[in-house]
Design goal:
Elements: H1 7-29, H2 33-49, H3 53-69, H4 73-89, H5 93-109, H6 113-130, H7 133-149, H8 153-169, H9 173-190, H10 193-210, H11 216-228, H12 234-252, E1 258-260, H13 270-285, E2 293-295, H14 300-327
Helix pairs in contact: 1-2, 2-3, 2-4, 3-4, 3-5, 4-5, 4-6, 5-6, 6-7, 7-8, 8-9, 9-10, 12-13, 12-14
């Protein structure tokens, strides 16, 4: 727009904007806040035509303040939202975040909760550019609360999840856990069970981070995560099963570990011995118990351990997979 304006037209826009601001200030002094808000909005629009983003942001912000004093919360929210947008163009992220937050608050007062949620989310995105993770997290949390009030469950879940991520970056594990839990509940209400499961996993990670370092409880939580992702990752169980089978097969490759029809000398060929040990390990792990091979005396403890692990992993896989299928 500004490229098509002559110098005379630019000066006219500047004078118009200044005049509107002056008139708006006079109206504020006379407590005519509704008209003052309108004039500040026009001044902001004039600055937008000049691409003077900072002055435009200021004027729209003043418009929001005037409408707020007039009790017109909906227009106040709209004006603050415009202020946030032009501050974004000026890359004044702190100003953008502040005005988006004000917009969210104003929309909440007018009971336009979905708009409030969107404004708070934009505030979080603006604060993210400043690296102020606590402000980011709080803005996203407010967005989630507004969307939850509007029963926009999927949007609420997304906002709470983003809040949890921001608290996580700020190393605030308790707050992160709480917001992941809220995200989980919101996604459940929306019927988005896969997303709810992901939030449950993040929630459990935050619980682990709160535990005392190097404690047995924290180590147990880590093992549970490694094996099945806190019940959310059945593929982890399959990988663990394959690792266990391969590990025990390497143990069974030790000379004289397996006896075939009473003959302990199976073969001197390495690949043949590896094939036999894999076969025996699989049979033992799935507890079929039907094999021409028998373990030697010193290998029997390993066989018992593998059989017990096989039973445990099979039961765990059925439970985790069944849980996910029922949920869907």
């Amino acid at each position: 727009m500004i490229e098509h304006l002559t110098e005379t037209e630019k000066l006219q826009f500047i004078r118009k904007a200044k005049l509107l601001e002056k008139k708006a200030m006079e109206l504020i002094e006379s407590e005519d806040y509704e008209r003052a808000g309108l004039l500040f909005g026009w001044a902001g629009y004039a600055y937008v035509q000049l691409q003077d983003w900072e002055n435009a942001g200021y004027s729209y912000g003043q418009s929001g303040e005037a409408y707020k004093k007039a009790g017109n919360w909906s227009k106040a929210g709209f004006s603050y939202d415009l202020s946030g947008k032009v501050y974004e163009k000026a890359e004044r992220w702190l100003g953008a975040g502040l005005n988006y937050s004000q917009s969210g608050y104003a929309y909440e007062q007018s009971k336009e909760y979905e708009k409030a949620g969107e404004s708070y989310r934009r505030a979080g995105e603006s604060y993210r550019e400043t690296g102020k993770w606590q402000e980011v997290a709080l803005s996203y949390q407010q967005s989630g609360e507004a969307c939850q009030t509007a029963k926009a469950w999927r949007s609420a879940g997304l906002s709470y999840a983003l809040s949890g991520d921001a608290y996580r970056k700020a190393l605030m594990w308790i707050e992160a856990e709480e917001n992941y839990c809220r995200a989980k509940m919101a996604y459940k209400e929306a019927g988005a069970y896969e997303d709810a499961g992901n939030m449950y996993y993040s929630e459990m990670l935050m619980k682990r981070m709160k535990m005392k370092k190097y404690s047995l409880k924290r180590f147990s939580s880590f093992i549970f995560d490694l094996i099945c992702g806190y019940g959310e990752k059945p593929k982890n169980i399959i990988i663990c099963c394959l690792v266990l089978i391969m590990s025990f097969s390497l143990i069974y490759m030790y000379p004289d570990s397996l006896v075939y029809n009473g003959d302990s000398e199976l073969s001197d060929n390495l690949w043949t011995r590896f094939y036999h040990s894999i076969y025996f390990s699989v049979i033992t792990f799935v507890t079929l118990g039907q094999s021409s091979f028998e373990p030697s005396i010193y290998m029997r403890p390993f066989v018992m351990i593998e059989a017990l692990l096989g039973i445990f992993m099979t039961v765990l896989f059925v439970l985790v997979l069944g849980r996910k299928m029922i949920r869907h």
